[in-house]
Amino acid sequence: MWKSFLRERLSWILFVLLWLSVIDALLLLEYDIKVSSTSFWYLNLLTLCMLILFLLWRGVKERRFIKRLSLMLQNDAYDLQEMHSYVRTKADEDMLSLLQRIDRVYRRQTHALHVQQREQQEYITTWVHEIKTPLTAMKLLINARRTELYKWPWLKDIEDEWMKIDGLVDQNLYAARLRHLEKDYQVQAVSLSELVFPNVAYFSKWCIEKRLHIDEKNLDTLVHTDPKWMQFVVKQVLSNAIKYSPLEGKLSFFSEETPKYVKLFIVDQGEGIPPQDLPRIFEKGFTGNVGRKSKGATGLGLYFSKKITDALGHRIEVHSLLHEGTTVILTFYKPNSFDNLSKM
Question: What CDD domains does the annotation carry (predicted)?
Answer without folding.
Answer: HisKA
